[in-house]
Amino acid sequence: MRQRKIGFAILVSAGLMGLAACSSSPTGTAPERALDRAAGTNTSGAYPLQSDGMPGNPRGTEASRALDRAAGTNTSGAYPSQSDGTRVNPPGTAATRAYDRATNSNTSGAYPQNGPRQ
């Protein structure tokens, strides 16, 4: 009777180990995958299409992209057309350009006609 219980326990253990070895669960832990699904990231490695630079997830974080959209900058790297020195976003910040216009200076570098950068 005792041998039968031991044999059954061995059989169950072997079956469970076989299932574990053949597991097709994605990489990362469940909390990491949940974070990836919510944030659109690939921290766990289970969502490679959500990696930075992919069509579904451009460079930078959502927060840095939101900053870029609001401020017209390219902190995230997702908006190269908004980089300093382009037609859309001349050198300096909006504040330094406003200062330059008000004081007829060239602190930002956007108004070379106002004289050398100070």
TrEMBL record:
Signal peptide residue numbers: 1-20
Domain of life: Bacteria
Protein name (database record): Lipoprotein
Keyword field: Signal
Biased composition (Polar residues): 72-86, 102-118
Organism expressing this protein natively: Teichococcus deserti
Region (Disordered), start-end ranges: 22-118
